[in-house]
Amino acid sequence: MLKILGRSDSINVRKLLWLCEELNLSYEREDWGRGFRSPQEDAFITLNPNATIPILIDGDFILWQSNSIIRYLANAYHGQHFYPQDPKPRAIIDQWIDWQGIELNNSWSYALMHIIRQSPAHQDLQCVAASIQSWNKNIQILDQQLKKTNAYVAGTDFSLADVVIGLSVQRWYMTPFDKPDCPHVKRYYTLLSQRAAYLKWGNNGQN
């Protein structure tokens, strides 16, 4: 059986839990991270020297980095309908997965730490404003992509790109600050919310 190490309210852990739900995969999960066992423990660092969640254990195979894990799960457990073998559509999916991990994720980090986590190290209001501006700009880029597809991020079908970006959209809506009108993102949010697995692990009130 698959084992997932990480607390269930982590956005990166929720990627795995959502995909497992979509693929009907059974797993065991252990709570690690904020409020639970520390990833700084030797037992955890032995598995992931970065001391970050999640970790996937599949028999004697150990994998960290959430976006790598969801790619592995789709490849290993009949998820080709979410991550096709054809190199061109797969490349588009990878493009948006990487965009989320690099551009979108980095844009929100300071604002989220200030507004939601109330981190003492993130109290520079100019940095907060810059983070919000960058976050909104990236969501507007997403809005234009969704206008083109009139469906999901990478095209007409649900894919791994929607797992990572769907959680990001929920975080954008859940974090209180002034937001531009993004009608295609709003439609997309409604579309994803028709999926039971998204309601369970994505649009579930967690941020």
TrEMBL record:
PROSITE patterns: GST_CTER, GST_NTER. It holds the Pfam family GST_C. The keyword Transferase applies. It comes from the Bacteria. InterPro entries: Glutathione-S-Trfase_C-like, Glutathione-S-Trfase_C_sf, Glutathione_S-Trfase, Glutathione_S-Trfase_N, GST_C, Thioredoxin-like_sf. Its EC number is 2.5.1.18. Residues 1-81 form the GST N-terminal domain. Keywords: Transferase. Gene3D superfamilies: 1.20.1050.10, Glutaredoxin. Belongs to the GST superfamily. This is Putative glutathione S-transferase. It comes from Acinetobacter baylyi (strain ATCC 33305 / BD413 / ADP1).
